[in-house]
Amino acid sequence: MSQHEIVSAYCADIGTNRLLVQAAGGNISWKTSETLWVKASGTWLADAKQKNIFLPVDLRSIKEKISEGNYEFGLQNSRGGPLRPSIETLFHALITSTIVLHTHSVEALATLVRKDADLEIEKKIGQSLDWILLDYHKPGPKLAKAIHDALKNKPSANVIFMRNHGIIIGGESIQEVDGMLKYILSALRQEVHYKALAVKDPPEIPGYRVASDTDVHSLVQHEILRKRLNTDWVLYPDHVIFLDQVAENDLSNIGCTGAPTHLFIPDIAVYERLNITRAARSQLLCYLDVVCRQLESAELIKLSKTEINELLNWDAEKFRQSINK
Question: Cα 164 from chain centroid?
Fold first, then answer.
């Protein structure tokens, strides 16, 4: 099998696991002599065997710009066409490993949104892997520069944990990368503390339906999760892009143009807009999977208003929204 076929098969496998990949989130790349093959922005890893989701990028050109300290430049798809290289192509290029995998794994993310993430990773991973932990940085140039600076201090690191974001793993083969991923998932695996109950006789709400993913109803059925909706709603970038920024249970704006993707009605059910996207549905499941792994005492770090606005007003993310209807 070619490297393309090997990577595509692996992506199709992990892309259907909601604890590893959510909607268009996450990306992967591999390098040949002077070409970086990377997932196209907004495409789904789960589609890797059915669709041509990988684009070739000139690796030498990117490395030259980074060596000059230039992170703010346009990325070109050397094959042409409407797709764009992933917004995180830069860090794929600067990491020297042949294969680079980036996922928003729930088991990792549930730790990386906590204030004491550094202590937990040190306790559970320790020296078993060569890793570094980064504070949150906006995806794209800012994150790439932070990774570049961190690797200068520890060039041997092949695992990068990113607060409020996810993990990056570099290796020379899919088998090596997958082995490290499975080790991390096992080490950071956490108990699910809240599970959904049956929804009984929910009222009809114009423009909405009861959420089709039954698990999400636990968000309004358990008091601690209802509190999280109000205090810890925006925890990571893809949540900002595909879900509304304020958890909403005010019925007064139903039918308005700006109606939220979801309504959270305490002790009744979660409702989803009739025209909800697959991406929004997937991201609410991810939020649920993260918060239901938190003890009530866990202190979480949420994205600031500034960090949220940086993502909402970014053309690269608007493009990703536009192709995930």
Answer: 9
Sequence-distant (≥ 6) Cβ neighbours of residue 297 within 8 angstroms: none
- Please tell me the distance from the alpha carbon of residue 287 to that of residue 299, in angstroms, as a whole number: 16
At residue 281, what are phi and psi to the nearest 5 degrees? -65, -45
pLDDT at 72 over 70: yes
CA distances (Å), origin 101, targets 250, 264, 276: 40, 34, 29
User: What is the rounded end-to-end Cα distance, in angstroms, of the chain?
Assistant: 33
- What tens digit of pLDDT does each residue of 106-121 get? 999 999 999 999 999 9
Q: Within the chain, where are the H helices?
A: 3-14, 59-67, 89-94, 106-112, 117-124, 141-153, 174-188, 218-221, 223-231, 237-242, 278-291, 305-312, 315-322
Strand pairing category for 166-171 and 262-265: unpaired
Question: In Å, how far from its chain's centre is CA 115?
Answer: 19
Q: What amino acid occupies position 304?
A: S
The proportion of the chain whose per-residue pLDDT surpasses 70, expressed as a percent, equals 90
CB 259 within 8 A of CB 273: yes
Given a contact cutoff of 8 angstroms between Cβ atoms, the answer to whether 320 and 57 are in contact is: no
Residue 196: what are its φ and ψ, rounded to 5°?
-75, 145
Tokens of 170: 């570099």
63 vs 68: CA distance, rounded Å: 9
Distance of CA 78 to the CA centre of its chain: 26
- The pLDDT-based confidence of 227 (bands split at 50, 70, 90) is very high
Q: Whole-angstrom Cα distance, residue 202 to residue 186?
A: 38
Q: Max alpha carbon distance in the chain (Å)?
A: 62
* DSSP secondary structure letter of residue 202: P
Residues 6+ away with beta carbon under 8 Å from 149: none
Q: State how far the Cα of 309 lies from the Cα of 325, in Å rounded to an integer.
A: 21
Residue listed under structure tokens 């290029």:
93
